[in-house]
Structure formats: structure tokens, C-alpha cells
Specification:
Blueprint lengths: L2 E8 L12 E8 L7 E9 L3 H5 L20 E7 L10 E4 L6 E4 L4 E3 L16 H13 L7 E4 L7 H10 L3 E6 L2 H10 L4 E4 L5 H8 L4 E6 L3 H10 E9 L19 H5 L3 E4 L9 H13 L7 E5 L4 H9 L6 E5 L2
Helix pairs in contact: 2-3, 5-6
Length: 334
Amino acid sequence: MPRTGLEIQLAARPVGEPRPGDFHAVTVDVPDPGPGQLLVRNTWMSVDPYMRGRMNDVPSYIPPFAVGAPLEGGAIGEVVAGGGDEIPVGTTVSHGLGWREWALLEPRTYRVVDTALAPAQAYLGVLGMPGLTAYAGLLDVGELRDNDIVFVSGAAGAVGSLVGQFAKLRGHTVIGSAGSAAKVAHLTDDLGLDAAFNYKDGPVAEQLRAAAPDGIDLYFDNVGGDHLEAAIDVLNVGGRVAMCGAIAQYNATEPVAGPSNMMTVVGKRLTLRGFIVTDHGSRLADLVTHIAPALSEGRITARETVVDGLERAPQAFIDLLRGANTGKMLVRLG
């Protein structure tokens, strides 16, 4: 009997904050795998802030989503057919065709993951793209150095929460910002950060300077805007910024003002460097080797916010952009 499955398509390009009507759930036929292909039943999928940019029809480092076509993103699934003896039925794989119940995967578009090493969904979080972003952003882009004082914005999110913990594992002083009192408590009480503040409680620059009286040496930027301006003010001479994202402006409908203190970059000889995680894929094996033991030993906390059901993925994404998640936002399909 032919298979059918649900997929979430982009119904319209959002203007400002995405709305439920910008998404459409469609039942489609699921073909059998051809030579070299795998048919996978997805069990977990990821929603991530970068997806908002792909909903706009503008030039970027990655093609935009097409209206009337399924969205894409990180997913974990179990092989149902097509792998042969090399990848037997039941094998768990990570791939990029989320937002659907079934995925037909081409060769070299997936990787087998070891669920004995960590739970399957960890490969969408701490051992996946967010973990790699934090790991490469700290070590390669931010050039983490001995005795650095590190500031991370969006510190309770999927990437930010790992940045803070990875730096703490290496013995650094870490300061984080988040958007609620509960998240601030999570940063200090659960993740072990040295200081944290709620950016809604007052000017970011004042709160950051109070939390870092000796200045900061490395800023991992997930927010942009007032956070970046504040960090430039508080960075020490020779400081560095790893520019990962700017979630504060993802839903903006008008131009967003940049930092007003850019001449400070010159005087302090700062380095501001943007990066895309896909440029650092060679670091993935290092990430798993060094972080999986810390995860299993409880030295890393991989907090998750889980939503059940593919049909609820659009709302999970909307809620993510509103800051409703602590840690990684995941949708459980199976």
C-alpha cells in the first residue's frame, strides 16, 4: 500500500513576526527509495532562529525557502528502507529534511549517529549544529585564550547555553544575558555561569559593566543591537567578538540601527568576526569526542524544550522567536 505523510510547507512569506497562517500542513505521497536512497521516518526535528531568514526572498548565504514547498531543517529519523546491508533498517541518522514525517535522502546527505553514546535528539543539540556552532565559535572564531572573561548573549538558548558551559569547562569566567528571571536563575544555578542578568531589567551596557567590572575579552553574539553596542563598550583592548546571530532584528520590518560606538573598535583594536557553522564541519568529530563524555558524566547540561507533533512545529518556531524556549527547542514526531 502506498505511504502518505504530513509535511509543513511555507504558505506565505512572513511580514514581521511569523503567523500560523504563513504555514500549511499538507498530506503527500511518499515514494519508495531508489538506488542509493534512504527512506527515513523522522522522529525528531529542530526549529532554529536562522530559519526566519530563509523565509525572506533575499540573497543570503543559504537559498530561501520556496513558497508552496516543504521547509527544511535538522532532523533525526530511523531508516525504514533502502540502506541495504551497509545501513540496515532501524539505523538512526541525522539529516536536513525536517518539517515532514518521512524523508527520502540522497547519498551523502545524512550521517549515522550513535544512540548508545547519547540520546538521538542530542544530535540536533549539544552534539549537532548548536553544539558545533558554540564549539567552533568559541575556539576558532573567538580564539578563546587563557584567562579570557567571556560574555554570551541569548545565554539560555540552544547555542548560548552551550557557549557558556563549554567556556566554563575550560575554566573561564562567563557572564550571560537572558530575557527572564527564571532564565537568569537557570544560567547561574543550573549551568554554573559566574554572573547573569535580565536584559529587560535595564540598559544592557550598565548591567554588563556591573557584572564585569574588569571588562570582557570575548563576546559571543547571538542578539546584536544593544547587546553588541554594550559589548563593544565593555570589551578590553584587543578583545574579540564572534558574531553568530542577531535575533533581536530577525522579525524587524524597518531598518535596525547598528552600534553607535564603532570608533571604539578602532581605539581598542577589537576584532569582530562573523561566521557560519557550515564552514566548520570539520570540527564535528572533535566536538563529539570532547563533549560526549562531558554530557554522559553530567558536566554538560543539555536542557530541551519539547513540543509534540509535527502539526505543532509552526507554533514551536513562532514561540522560539519569542524566547519561549530554554535550551534547545525540539519537535518530537514519533
